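[job 4471] stage=fold_predict status=RUNNING
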Amino acid sequence: MHEILPSIQIIFEQKELVDKSKEAILATNTELGDMPAIENIIIKFLNARNKYELEELGVANRTETILKVKKVLTKKSLNVHLRLV
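[job 4471] inference complete, writing structure tokens
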């Protein structure tokens, strides 16, 4: 009986980790929204504009904005992979 208790405890800990992972995936889905994959289009758009056009659009820093877009791309990719596991 004493040999079984550690195994049961490990199973419950693993279930708790799986539940936390599912919550994290759901939170990421909520954060990213249901928009179609337009990140690459946004990056191409930003790269095709000059400094003055970007300023008119309210984009102060092209590189920073592109990095934010890529961060969303990375989160979406991770989210897809996590759903497959």
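[job 4471] summary: The radius of gyration is 21 Å.
[job 4471] exit 0
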